[in-house]
Structures are given as C-alpha cells and as structure tokens.
Amino acid sequence: MTLSLWLAFLAMALAATFSPGPAVLLAVSTTLTLGARRTAYSSAGNAVGVFLVSCVAVGGMGLVFKAWPPAFSVLKLAGAAYLAWLGVKQWRTAGQVGTAAQASAPEGSSRGAVFRRGMLVACSNPKAILFFAAVFPQFMPPGSVDVMRFLLLSLTFVACTLVAHLSYVLLAATAGTRVMSGPRMAILQRCTAILFIGLAGALALE
After folding, report:
1. For 20, which DSSP code?
2. Which residue from 6, 63, 77, 109 lies 20 to 30 Å from 33 (Cα-Cα)?
C-alpha cells in the first residue's frame, strides 16, 4: 500500500471516528458517571468490537445483509434496543457520580462490565459492518483480500477510534469537574440518556 493511499484511508477513518455516535456518547457518559480511568476500559472494549466488526465485514457479512435484508433489520433493531436500554439505565442513575454510582450498581461499573458495554456498542451497530464492507474493498487489491493490508487498515481505524475517544473523554472530564455535584450533573446525565434513546429511535426508524 502506498503512503498516499494510506493517508486517504486515515483521513476517512478520522472523519468517521470523530463524528459523534453511540460509542462516543458512551465514552462521554461513562466519564461523567465513573471517571476517565474507568472509561479507558470502555474505549478498549469498543476498539476490540471495532476490530471484530471489520473482520466480520471482510468475512462477508455485508454481502449477507445485501442478499437477505431481514438480517440487517434484525441486527438493527437489536442494536436500537441495546442503546435504548443504556439510555434508561443512564436516566435511572442520573446524579450518582463516582463511588456513589458504583455502590448503587456494582454489577454495571466493574472493569469487565464497562469493557463489555463498550464492545457491545461497537458490535451492535450494523451500519459499521456496511461501512467496512463498502470502504475496505476500495483499498484492497482487486478480487482478493490482502491479510497484511487488512490488518493495517483495521488497526489504523482502531487507533483512530482510541484517539477520538481520548479527545472526547478529556473534554468530558474537564467539563465534568465543574459540574460533578449538584443538580447540574443530574441534568447533564439525563441529557445523555435522552441522546441514547434518541439514537436508538433513529437507528430503529432509519
């Protein structure tokens, strides 16, 4: 792969990963609720999920969606339901920050649970599979799959995902220190809950 071709993919990956979506919203809400350090596990889980999605896409899931549209609808509705569940959970824990939130919901704030939540958000997005299925062939040799090139593209996208999450987490952590107590924090968390539910509705109706 030439440097110019890789730079073109890098620009596309940065644009896609910095665009606000469910994964970015999850990173921000986790930062506000559990702190930036715990969010690292969510971002790591999301990165693993993104890599798995790229493997599934290159493996032919994009063709399955095109050949049998109901498969896309089923996964889309499942992803929407999961985002809605995250929104409801965020609403119910609004106003609980740091150790208070962890004490009220230890099963949802452990490192493993946060990691799995990040991975599930990445894997439950059918549009991501279609994105990889549509974009990767443009950077592959015609009629074949170059494993080394696939790894380069996938890891580049994963790295861009981590950079985007880090940027949003730092912004959320900086803003959060000013509103970590009082009713403003609860309002902010309820706003993110509404955004989760709104994303779920948009995904289900699209």
Report:
1. -
2. 77
Neighbours of 137 (CB within 10 A): 15
Full DSSP string of 111-178: HHHHHHHHHHHHHT-HHHHHHHHHHGGGGS-TTS--HHHHHHHHHHHHHHHHHHHHHHHHHHHHHHTT
Q: pLDDT, tens digit, for every residue of 129-156?
A: 777 877 777 777 766 667 888 899 999 9
Residue with tokens 């110019």: 4
d(CA 51, CA 119) in angstroms, rounded, equals 10
What are the C-alpha distances in Å from 185 to residues 3, 40, 172, 176, 178? 45, 21, 12, 8, 9
Task: State the pTM of this model.
Answer: 0.73
Buried b (16+ CB within 10 A) or exposed e, 28-61: bbbbbbbbbebbbbbbbbbbbbbbebbebbbeeb
